[in-house]
Amino acid sequence: MTDKRKIGVYPGTFDPITFGHIDIIKRACKLVDKLIIGIAESINKDAAFDIKSRTEMVKYEIRRLGINADIISFDGLLVDFAKKQRASVIIRGLRAVSDFDYEFQMSWVNYKLLPEIETIFLPASEDTQFISSSFVKEIASLNGDISKFVPESVKRKLYEKNDM
Ligand code: COA
Questions:
Q1: Closest Cα to atom 5 of ligand 1
Q2: CATH number of the domain at 7-125, please?
Q3: 51 CB less than 6 Å from ligand 1?
C-alpha cells in the first residue's frame, strides 16, 4: 500500500530551539499529515550546542507540549534527508525582510537539486518576529533574562553552559 500522507520537513540548526521555532512547528503541523523536524549538523555556523544536545532539547519541548512530530537529526544535504523521509514539502519560517534573500536562494537551490520538493514559507507571528538563537545566546552569556524567548528547559541549559 502506498503512503498518501503529506509529509513535511521543518529543518534548522535549532541552536537552541526558541519560541520562534515552536510557533512555526505548531502551525506547520496543521499543514501536513506528518511533520518531521530535521536537526541539521551545523557546518556554516559555530554551534554552541552539539547536535545531540540540540536534538534532545527539541525532543523534550515537543513532547512536553504534546506536539505530534518526529524529531530526526541529519547531516549532508537537506534534499537528501527530505527524500529519504518521503517528504514533499520543506517548511521554513520567515521573520523580517532580512530573512527573505537567504531563504529565497536556499529554496531555489533546493528546488534545482530536487524539483519534486516545494518550500513553504510561514511568516513568523508578531510576538516572535525578532527572536533569534544568536541574540538569545548573547543575552544569556551576559546573564540577561531570556524567559520571553525560550522555554524554561532551554533557559536552564543556556545558563548551565555559561557556568561551565
Ligand atoms: N522565529 C524566530 N526566529 C527564527 C524563526 C522564527 N520563526 N525562524 C528562524 N529563526 C531564527 C533562528 O533562531 C536562527 O537564528 P540564528 O541565525 O541567530 O542562529 C535563524 O533564524 C535560523 O535558524 P534555523 O531556523 O535553526 O535554521 P538555519 O538557518 O540555521 O538552518 C538549514 C539552515 C539547516 C536549513 C540549512 O543550512 C540546510 O539545509 N543545511 C543542510 C545542508 C544543505 O542542504 N545545504 C544546501 C541548502 S542551500
A1: 20
A2: 3.40.50.620
A3: no
